[in-house]
Amino acid sequence: MVELKTAQSIDAMREAGRIVAQALTAARKAAAVGVSLRDLDTVAHDVLREAGASSPFLGYHPHFAPVPFPAVLCTSVNEAIVHGVPNTYRLRDGDLVSLDCGAELAGWVGDSAISFTVGTPRPEDARLITTAERALEAGIAAAVVGNRIGDIAHAIGTVCRSAGYGIPEGFGGHGIGRHMHEDPGVPNEGRPGRGMPLRPGMAIAIEPMVIAGGGDGYHPAPDGWTLRTNDGSRAAHAEHTVAITEDGPRILTAL
């Protein structure tokens, strides 16, 4: 079931989304050669705590995971696509880092992700990250009343495939609101004009993921959470929480 949010509820989600943006900004600023992934998680956790928000990630335990997620930040490095668990790994020059963060405030949730390079960027990584961001922009542009979920999926997939990149099969965005994952699912590839119609008051997390090698395959790491590319190539991830309104898409996790 899809809950249509009121204007007041969307405003409340914007406050949660603002905290997510602040946490990601702080973690990105702290990311440098020699800094551990756990250090980044601590930075994000401090932002949430100071804002009076909680984390929908911390303790989250879906059916596929062997243990509850132990952090407030997903830290995926190089060939890790999503769901990376913060650990003692220390960042190295040229690492491609994807950070995914959520916040819950006053009963409403925001969710967003960014990708960037630590230290000296490789041109091929810069192109990969830019493509993920362009795919996110295309998906958001398609998130208008009168379109359907398939129009968002098609917009994302067209950008990613045109660049020659893979898209992790079965992973994409989702509805969001009182809970981190709600209906509807928002695929990263699909046919235009298909799927659920977009209505004012819907809130969705749009999150393209791209694999540099062009394949779609992935596998879980031994921690049971981190998803890695099968071909060992690098991946990038970008995400915003977006509300569908009569005036067009409203990004709720922008800084």
TrEMBL record:
Signal peptide: none annotated. A divalent metal cation 1 binds at residues 100, 111, 239. GO terms for molecular function: initiator methionyl aminopeptidase activity. The keyword Hydrolase applies. Its cofactor is Co(2+); Zn(2+); Mn(2+); Fe(2+). Keywords: Aminopeptidase, Hydrolase, Metal-binding, Protease. InterPro entries: Creatinase/aminopeptidase-like, Pept_M24, Pept_M24_MAP, Pept_M24A_MAP1. Binds 2 divalent metal cations per subunit. Has a high-affinity and a low affinity metal-binding site. The true nature of the physiological cofactor is under debate. The enzyme is active with cobalt, zinc, manganese or divalent iron ions. Most likely, methionine aminopeptidases function as mononuclear Fe(2+)-metalloproteases under physiological conditions, and the catalytically relevant metal-binding site has been assigned to the histidine-containing high-affinity site. Its EC number is 3.4.11.18. Substrate binds at residues 83, 181. It is an enzyme of class 3 (hydrolase). A divalent metal cation 2 binds at residues 111, 174, 207, 239. Residues 12-246 form the Peptidase M24 domain. It comes from the Bacteria. It catalyses: Release of N-terminal amino acids, preferentially methionine, from peptides and arylamides. Monomer. Belongs to the peptidase M24A family. Methionine aminopeptidase type 1 subfamily. Removes the N-terminal methionine from nascent proteins. The N-terminal methionine is often cleaved when the second residue in the primary sequence is small and uncharged (Met-Ala-, Cys, Gly, Pro, Ser, Thr, or Val). Requires deformylation of the N(alpha)-formylated initiator methionine before it can be hydrolyzed. This is Methionine aminopeptidase. It comes from Streptomyces atriruber. The gene is map.
